[in-house]
Amino acid sequence: MKPRLLLVEDEPTLARGLVDSFRDEGFEPHLVGRGDQAVAAVRALRPDILVLDVLLPGRSGLDVLRDLRGAGDGVPILMLTAKGDVVDRVVGLELGADDYLSKPFAVRELLARVRALLRRAEGRASAIETVACGGIVFDFRAMTATGPEGALDLTPHDLLVAKVLAARRGEVVPRADIVEEVCGLESEATLRKVDNHVMALRRALGDDPRRPRWIQTVRGEGYRLARGDGD
Asked: What is the pLDDT of residue 127?
């Protein structure tokens, strides 16, 4: 079965060329030219992957991304950004984009990144879906975390870091592995960003940063999610 791909791009020449390239490479491509039509198209088509431009008529790609992730939609999303626009890339990653590519780009690179995201999505589909620790329930299908007082204010990338640690619970996970799993091989996300996400998760869990019970630091190596009491 051909993977369904939704392309949201308003430049007609570029869009037509990409649709042809995706079709030639074995995809089932669908095209939308406006941002204010994108969310409805995702819900109707249920694509395997979304390629989403940032600058769109009607609604920006970042707003579309925010709506999809806010609704718990985990479709893999690759953002197309203007050359050198670091702000869009950083905001996109914080909102839950899986990868980005700056214009102008080589079509072969776009195809390679799309295939890489599909492979990652296939791996995640068979991975852990929920985990509970410290009185918090992480639901990685809905991309939510819930504690005794209700929903917690964690970003999509906070939750993805938790998911990587949960999938290898009890093991030391190198920070570089977390960056690769959460943001992709070509991401500009730094190891320090991983530390920031871990800090947010520790706050949610009530972990003492000096002597954390749940997310433990293994100096020079990475982080480990404890299995339970006494671990």
From this structure: 60
Residue ranges of the domains in the chain? 4-125, 130-225
Q: Taking the mean position of all CA atoms in its chain, how far away is CA 229? A: 30
pLDDT in tens, 152-162: 999 988 998 99
Q: Which residues share a beta bridge with 21?
A: none
Which two three-digit tokens encode residue 122?
């296939």
Predicted TM-score of the model (pTM): 0.58
In sequence order, what E strands does the chain have?
A: 4-8, 28-32, 49-53, 77-81, 99-102, 130-133, 136-139, 144-147, 150-151, 173-174, 215-218, 222-225
pLDDT given for residue 42 in this prediction = 94
Which CATH superfamily groups domain 4-125?
Response regulator (3.40.50.2300)
Cis bond before residue 174 (omega within 30° of 0)? no
Angstrom distance (rounded) from CA 139 to CA 156? 11
